Amino acid sequence: MRRRREVAIIGIGQTRVGEHWDKSIKQLAAEAILAALKDAKIDRVDTLYVGNALSGELAFQEHLGAAIADFAGLRPIEALKVEAAGASGAAALRLGYLAVAGGLADFVLVCGVEKVTDSPAEKVISALSLSIDGEYEREMGLSFVALNALIMRRYMHEFGYELKDFANFSVNAHKNAVNNPHAMFRNPITEKAFVEARMVVEPINLLDSSPVADGAAALVLCPMDMARDFSARPVRIASSVVATDTLALHDRKDPLFLEAAYLSAKRAYEIAGIKPEDIDLFELNDSFTIMAALSLEAAGFAEKGKGVKLAMDGEIAIDGRIPISTMGGLKARGNPLGATGVYQVAEAVLQLRYEAGPNQVKDAHWALVQSIGGTGGTAVTHILEGPD
Amino acid sequence: MSLPAVWRTRKQRYALMGEICKKCGVKIFPPRDVCPECSKPAQTPYSFSGKGVVYSFATVYQAPEEFEEYAPYTVAIVKLEEGPMVTAQLTDVDPEEVKIGMPVEMVTRKLYEEGKGGVIHYGYKFRPCIE
Ligand SMILES: [Zn+2]
């Protein structure tokens, strides 16, 4: 293979996740983009990749590449939208990485954006399920949540867990979000509240699920050898890997194993030349607590059936063995679908630049960031290395 | 789902018609034209018996728009006796009585109606086996 260039993240920008009735999808994206450009101390880039999952369905705007480049004052640069359900933002970063690593662009903006509150809640719920199989899952009355509930029930059955055993994933996420100014829910919750929350699709309840909301985040990439001119603490993208699995859950040999997540993490470790025990923090997909448990297992932090145990033992806290959702995760920062993958990376960058405030993971050097589309059909894994 | 899509999938929906791979013998449902095991074309029709066991189940309280009037209802992944798994609703059973491992069989039922007086979508559901 031809030599590739090392790629750095030199700027990040985030809007607060929430219900932004007063802002359009273009305004949200521009806000994040301008913040990222300011952080990188540059005003022009060569290319823009926009990660978005459902703008046509929920924000009534497609052709997002041009729409956002135009609105953010970047015209006439190359600008394209990338879609991979909940992994759209991470997929956009993957394309940005390819462009810079391959030597075809020097400065690339990656923006993840989602605008859901232009549509009524029922429509948002239905649209979320567009990422699952239309003919054999959705048509039978299944939703995205229902599929996660099927995974969770089987997991509880096979490994002998109860609902309360999953509580600490949500309790930990809410605790961490208290100190994140960009988070949607900055209130702590208790195990009692978790267990008593209203059922959505039993066994998944309201406090088990991540809230879908509006938001935008952006990153600026450039070759590592130029990065020091712009950032005192550039973060290196040590690996970037995408893998896919069956779209429908019933087509998997083992629905309790996230094969794409496993394969992409395995390859990412190999490329970065490190092992799971070297990772200082893991920004994972906690759209539902069961996904957090399966992600911990797929990425090598727990044996099969033991992911929940890590949460029960408190090992997922900021000072635990493997801190997760360090700025609130999808659960409490909020889940702006196509923007989520970019938020995850921006938060990992804050940790690696030692800018995470009270949530700082001590001596954070290696961060694993993984985004999942649908119930695991797409998995995008990035390993980031801090300076020094 | 659109009417052409309903028409295209009628054999699957009403008769659990899948495929068998000539090359490696694996039985496939839903049909996918390319064998998931050996990646060879697999287009020989194969009709499943409709018998299986519950692999997992969940009770839907917050339903998708088209299914709202039927909530709460129980959905499941059923492991068919020929091997593949299929996703469907359970019917003719109290949600409290559903257990993982429970033997079930396929029946044809109404899935949902497209609005008031709209087209009715039929398809498979599974009910406890009547011995
Ligand atoms: Zn075959």
Report on this model:
The complex is a heterodimer of chains A (388) and B (131). With 388 residues, chain A is an alpha/beta fold. Chain A is built from 14 helices and eleven strands. With 131 residues, chain B is mostly beta strands. Chain B is 9% helix and 40% strand. Chain B is globular, with a radius of gyration of 16 Å. The model of chain B has no long low-confidence stretch (mean pLDDT 93). The interface between A and B is large, with 38 and 35 residues. Strand 5 of chain A pairs antiparallel with strand 4 of chain B. The structure holds zinc ion. The site of zinc ion has 9 residues of chain B, from loops.
Q: What are the key terms here?
A:
heterodimer; A: 388 residues; alpha/beta; 9-stranded mixed sheet; two-stranded antiparallel ribbon; 14 helices; 11 strands; 36% helix; globular; B: 131 residues; mainly beta; 5-stranded antiparallel sheet; 3-stranded antiparallel sheet; 8 strands; 9% helix; binds zinc ion
Q: What's the total count of β strands of chain B? A: 8
Number of helices of chain B: 2
Please give the largest β-sheet of chain A.
9 strands, mixed
Radius of gyration of chain B: 16 Å
- By DSSP (H or I, 4+ residues per run), the number of helices of chain A equals 14
Query: Which band does the percent of strand residues of chain A land in?
Result: 15-25%
Strand arrangement within the widest β-sheet of chain A reads 3-2-4-7-1-8-11-10-9
